[in-house]
Amino acid sequence: MALQGSLLDQIDDVGLRPLVGAIRRVELTRGAWIDLRPGWLTGADELFSRLSLGGSAGVDWQGERRQMYDREVATPRLLRFYHAHETLPDPVLTQARSALSAHYRGELGEPFTTAGMCLYRDGRDSVAWHGDRIGRSNTHDTMVAIVSIGQPRTFAMRPVGGGASIRHTLGHGDLIVMGGSAQRTWEHAIPKSSKATGPRISIQFRPYDVR
Ligand SMILES: O=C(O)CCC(=O)C(=O)O
Ligand SMILES: [Fe+2]
Fold first, then answer.
1. Cβ(123)–Cβ(74) under 8 Å?
2. S-S: 145 plus which of 54, 182, 184, 205, CB 3.0-4.6 Å?
3. Is 204 in the pocket of ligand 1 (CB under 6 A)?
């Protein structure tokens, strides 16, 4: 897969910039909010190269499993879900999970445990409007933290039941955290793009029994 790297990424090692003081919170309606931390992960293009390799060197990407995502049946993308006990495919992802757990410990009251990974190969790959509502997130406030690497894609959100959507362009190490009631009262999507779009990987960190 071809990936056009940004100049900054080429000189950066894979690592994490600080969270404290660098996060911007946006309050949405009905108790939902998002936190944004652009460029949280450094060396994002290097990490993309590592993770996009198949087999033992990278991630054993799998086609979307219909029975797990009944609300997303027709959406093409590749997936790998890491349960809490599994070793993540790169040490920086373990660091990222720890940093997020530490940063949000007071507000979330529990650590992030699982890591879902999605590979959008080009603009035809996408995910339809949905909330992550499997498990406790169907009834309780929670958080889903997403790190994006590779080429930026539009991350869209809209209120359940209608209303104006909001859009953020996420790639190259950007962090978004959806919090409060966001999985119940808002929906999110990665819309298809008709422009020539390179591949993007998203890594979603969630607490236990949230999916
Ligand atoms: O790729 C993304 O940023 C969103 C992924 C997502 O919403 C999901 O897998 O539940
Ligand atoms: Fe989602």
1. no
2. 205
3. yes
Residue 158 near residue 132 (C-beta atoms within 8 A): no
At 155, phi and psi to the nearest 5?
Answer: -105, 110
Number of separate domains in the chain: 1
Closest C-alpha among 202, 173, 199, 201 to residue 9: 173
Residue 36 lies in a domain: yes
pLDDT of amino acid 9 = 47
Residue 62: Cβ within 10 Å count: 11
Partnered with residue 159 across adjacent β-strands are 186
Query: Using CA positions, which residue lies closest to atom 2 of ligand 1?
Result: 202
ipTM of the complex: 0.99
What does the pLDDT read at residue 64? 75
Here the CATH number for the domain that contains residue 122 is: 2.60.120.590
In this structure, which residue's CA is closest to atom 1 in ligand 1?
A: 202
Asked, for residue 15, whether it belongs to a domain, the answer is no
What does the pLDDT look like over 130-189, one tens digit per residue?
999 999 999 999 999 999 999 999 999 999 999 999 999 999 999 999 999 999 999 999
Q: Which of 102, 83, 105, 94 is nearest to 210 (CA)?
A: 83
Identify the domain containing residue 104 by its residue range. Answer: 24-206
Q: Is 183 in the pocket of ligand 1 (CB under 6 A)?
A: no
Query: What is the whole-number distance in angstroms between the Cα of residue 35 and the centre of ligand 2?
Result: 15
Residues of the chain short of pLDDT 50, as ranges, are 9, 68
**Structural domain includes residue 16:** no
Domain membership flag for residue 153: yes
